[in-house]
């Protein structure tokens, strides 16, 4: 019965659209209750997709989505790194509002066993749609926290944020999961531990020599304790890599750890199997499924079927495997007869990583003509991402929209499509995309968009209503290393503040409608509207700041240091090991 009601509602909407329904169709669509499939890549450069101009990496399935749907060319992430961008995507709010940022360089959650995470008082689109009768699932990467006070309170868990079902990594794929040379934290920790070991060992040897030569008096207690400390530091420095793999690189199904650590060569098949199972279980009721790919984040785990097949090394192989996964998921919809009643969306959480480089090998994405990349709060390459919507029979196939839109817009869009209401007790920064997608509106509802790096405002854009020009103002930009390079090579990621960031007074100004690569900064001498633009954007920034309410920063040190009592473990800590998956083949 639910399935029939779902189908009739959807058909009624299609008839209305085909008969030429105008803006009122948006209200009709909110009652259509389509299935909603959200696909998000990890660290995926906008320049790596065929439909966005790449002709050397094969992405036929993503390209097919664009051919059959609507493609956004100015789709913007709310942050240039994972955790804050995903928080904004789920809540429709700048991450600063929920406290999902830091002020001291901790750009993302650093461990699974930390107390920081998406606060329980934040409302996700999954929570709203679940209350409206949707089956809600998240498969893949989470990276928004897990526990608050114990290893199983699950306060930040996806199931506590509106998802009925979760399968995937509560943390994130990273090079440290396979002890890779490109390390997020292991290499740095090993270096610090080795330095501390050397200092402590030197102290122990000095104290021992003093005692043996009778140059010092007193007990042997300092010698014993310094020797114990040196030994512990030495052992820890050589075992920290193994500890990280077990602490962060595991799979969960709902609240149960199923694989710790992960067996990476079967992860792709396990995820696809889970997607198929979720769709089959819920095909007779409306569902929301968020597939959060582990691709294409380093270390680029790729199955043998795709290794060595692309023209761009391991990154290209990984990209083409993800595209194949997209095709498999779309085929599942086809086989279940759900294609025409499902809104599909594809995006990335932010731009590709330029610094993911070893020698001459590039392991991060390409951001096309856009300057910068992952971790750069203001430059386009870090925040401009693919945005593709497909809904056969409702959205006109092959349309391209050149209006500023945001990942935050998905929140009000899917909430209203699912028959829910956007919360009125808080500021929502996303805007309903349906009028733009349907063609009943010609321009985006975003006049201004702000671009933060941690809690620092790096840039802002203004879509000028009269004249159609798109202005970008940069208040702060990272200093590239080495000088003249296009990224912060050798530093992992560009900083948001400190002496490696330039403060611009007056700010840098670019006209993105004529200079999307941000290659030519405008000045009062070259742009007559310079001061008018600066004043207009400054007023918008001040108005925005008046809407901010101070909240605890979840990614600052207090919420972002590893705590053993918060560490999920499927055995007796620290012997965390289990395999409840078996071989899926």
Q: How would you describe what is shown here?
A:
With 585 residues, the chain is of the alpha/beta class. The protein has 14 helices and 17 strands. It has an 11-stranded mixed beta sheet with strand order 12-2-11-8-1-7-3-4-5-6-17, with helices on both faces. A 4-stranded antiparallel beta sheet has the order 13-14-15-16, covered by helices on one side.
Please outline the helices and strands.
Layout: H1 2-18, H2 25-30, E1 35-41, H3 60-68, E2 70-76, H4 82-91, H5 95-98, H6 125-131, E3 135-141, E4 165-169, H7 186-212, H8 221-248, E5 251-253, E6 256-260, H9 267-281, E7 287-292, H10 313-335, E8 342-348, E9 357-358, E10 361-362, H11 380-383, E11 384-390, E12 399-406, H12 410-417, H13 434-438, E13 448-453, E14 456-463, E15 470-478, E16 501-511, H14 530-545, E17 578-579
Parallel strand pairs: 1-7, 1-8, 2-12, 3-4, 3-7
Antiparallel strand pairs: 2-11, 4-5, 5-6, 6-17, 8-11, 9-10, 13-14, 14-15, 15-16
